[in-house]
Design brief:
The protein is mostly helical. It is built from 7 helices and no strands. The chain is 68% helix and 0% strand.
Length: 208
């Protein structure tokens, strides 16, 4: 769906809704883990947390690993119906990251400390505090990401408009014949418009 680039809503709005979904899933993963996970079941999450610290210089890889960390956090809760339900959303969130992370991903300051605090809260069973911590974290991160997405989308739209203008036929007899659909070899009616060769795709996700 994301790679096809045919959306029923503007791309920035779609990205905002997917980020909102990610935030809700992460908050629920924190709450459920803090409520039901046994401390010894958080080993895989701790391993991913350590791995994240080594990826701070690679924001795109950091973002993809963070998704897996929150998925493992949810699995640690052993509330399997919630895990199965969330699995239907992880693929979309992961696809969004694959398409956009290289251009907009960021590693916020204090991220490692936030994860360490989250794991400590989960191990102590402090569900409300764990959920509030994650909610506040992603509220700030998503706000910054949406600014970057709006900028990326705006730059791409400007490039597309500029390329279309550069390929527009010059005014004159030949130009009028080409655009009216009545010149030699054109038949009748308006010809189908095709994007100029080499022009950017109307959607920045269509050709990653």
């Amino acid at each position: 769906y994301l790679r096809a680039g045919r959306f029923d809503v503007p791309l920035p709005a779609l990205a905002a809704e997917l980020l909102r979904t990610r935030r809700m899933l992460a908050v629920e993963a924190a709450r459920l883990a803090a409520t039901y996970a046994k401390p010894e079941s958080l080993g895989r999450v701790r391993a991913l947390a350590k791995q994240l610290q080594g990826l701070e210089g690679d924001p795109a890889a950091h973002a993809m690993t963070e998704i897996e960390l929150f998925r493992e956090l949810l699995c640690a809760s052993t509330v399997w119906p919630a895990v199965w339900f969330a699995n239907g959303f992880w693929d979309g969130v992961r696809a969004m990251h694959e398409q956009l992370a290289g251009a907009i991903a960021l590693v916020p300051a204090g991220h490692a400390t936030m994860i360490d605090t989250l794991l400590a809260l989960a191990a102590r069973g402090q569900a409300k505090r764990a959920a509030a911590l994650v909610d506040g974290h992603f509220a700030k991160v998503d706000e910054a990401l949406l600014v970057r997405i709006e900028r990326l989308f705006g730059e791409h739209a400007a490039q597309t408009a500029a390329a279309s203008g550069a390929e527009r036929p010059r005014a004159g007899r030949a130009g009028r014949a080409a655009t009216s659909g009545t010149g030699p070899g054109t038949g009748t009616g308006s010809p189908t418009r095709r994007p100029p060769r080499g022009a950017p795709s109307p959607n920045p996700l269509a050709h990653p």
